[in-house]
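ingest -> validate -> predict -> emit
validate: passed (alphabet ok, no gaps, 201 aa)
predict: started
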Amino acid sequence: MGSSQSTQKITAQDRAILDLKLQRDKLKQYQKKIQGVLDREQEIAKSHLAAGRKDRAVIALRRRKYQQSLLLKTDGQLENLEQLVSTIEFSLVEVSVLHGLKQGNEVLKEIHKEMSIESVEKLMEETQEAREYQREVGDLLANQLTLDEEDAVQAELRELQAQAVRLPIVQVELPSAPTTQPVVSEGDQCAVALLHFLIRC
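emit:
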């Protein structure tokens, strides 16, 4: 069963970032190599001084100074590379955010098309008309009744409200308790003993 895995497409930006990171790693390796040369030249200078060869110690220290200048240059290049990688990666994040905002804006436009001002106004008018119609019906029914009938309606309403508040008392007749001892098997006795033990715990 060969399940097809979704492979992400490698873009030109991805390749550029990878190349920059590879260059950065090469520079770091070069810096380690220079540091090794610096340490070696210092040891050489010390050994020449100990042997009384001052001129050779000076040459070793000059070579060391030159290597130090190379190390400083690689520091600057490394800093530039890291800044460039960070800038590119941040720019890609910005592009992704802008793409997300653009999609969100398009969705909002679609929603606004469905909820146009005219349709909202029409819905509000229809709702208002329905309320007014309901009120008119209520007024008509109220005006058709005599004062006595209206009083009777109000009294019936009060009675219904009072009934809703009162809770009915229901008499429940329970069966009487058994008077004889139940016959319990040995297995049931173990189960009952275990149940009593668990309840006490």
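Residues 12-114 form a domain with the Helix Hairpins fold (CATH 1.10.287.1060).
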